[in-house]
Amino acid sequence: MSKNHSTQKLLNSIKQSDLLVLLAVLAVLCIIVSFLTPVFLSPRNIMNTLRQVSLTAICGFGLTMVILVGEIDLSVGSQQAIAGISSIYILNATHSISLAILAALVCGVIVGAINGLLVTKAKLNSLIATLGTMAIWRGLAMVITGAVSIQSQVEAFQGIATGFVGFIPNAVIIAAVLYFIIYYVLNHTTFGRKIYAIGGNKEASRLAGLSVDRIKLLVYIFSGVLTMLSGVLLASRMASAQPTAGTGFEMVVIASVILGGVSLNGGIGTIAGALIGMIILGVLQNGLTLLDVSSFWQDITRGLVIILAVFVDTVRKDSIAKRLVKEQKLLQQ
């Protein structure tokens, strides 16, 4: 019991130190960008940045849970396109915003279930499986729309993403509510503990009686629903469904989550860290845009951030392993 308590205490201290480092990086980045472009600290730009980060966060919260169970989903960008198309089609046919949103969320359940079943029942590697579905969803989006955008015929639909409650954008409020829900699930429920256990050691979890495949399937479905929600907000903001929507979005979300301390190997990371990682990447992208940096250089920067995030994840994983071994040796003495 004392060993388990000591190990948990060590892991908690590592989590806290990681969050402090991430907050320090965010603070330094904000200071640097504000010096380079004073517009950065304007209320309007801050709200625009938060609105943009919110779309990443809504999808990223679901993907965080997928990564925590030791899997990945490369199809989230393509899912955004499907979300926009399904919602706009139903919106134009029924003129009902509620039915449009519901249609997209149902699609989220379907695509999430397909990804989950490919990983759990077909036993495919999640990287390969979702690489395949990424191409399928994108191709399907092109076929359905004929590779052209579909405009919204209901003006009020645009207000979902562009509207405010007071001075706070709707998307930020939605992301904040989802954050607290998922934070509670991961930290204060049995389901959350099972997610961490499976990501930490899948076989041990299976031997302990956990329904590993069922939990992974549920996580993929939940991720699909959240990704579709972010896709609806994107379609709302553009007042149209774009078959190319979400292109490259998967790399932004994955980089943000890994940058926030969530291990690609699963079982390690927090939703708070993931959110800070998303804000860091959002601030960086906003700063580069304000500085009129070419989109090509922004792509290069994102690529470098992905490499850096994976490198940091590897170093962090080795460091934790060494500290745990050292802690166990001290307890045995």
What does this molecule look like?
It is a single chain. By secondary structure, the protein is mainly α. 78% of the residues lie in helices and 2% in strands. The strands form two sheets. Strands 1-4 form a two-stranded antiparallel ribbon. Strands 2-3 form a two-stranded antiparallel sheet. Helix 3 runs parallel beside helix 5 (126-145) and helix 12 packs antiparallel against helix 13 (295-332). It starts with a helix and ends with a helix.
Structural class: mainly alpha
- Please state roughly what percent of the residues sit in beta strands, choosing from under 5%, 5-15%, 15-25%, 25-35%, 35-45% or over 45%: under 5%
Terminal Cα span: 16 Å
How many helices? The count is 13
Low-pLDDT segments: none
Note the main sheet. 2 strands, antiparallel
Secondary-structure element pattern, one letter each: HHHHHEHEEHHHHEHHH
Mean pLDDT: 90
Biggest sheet strand line-up? 1-4
| Rg calculated over all Cα atoms | 20 Å
Helix residue percentage: over 70%
Bulk shape:
globular
Tally of DSSP β-strands: 4
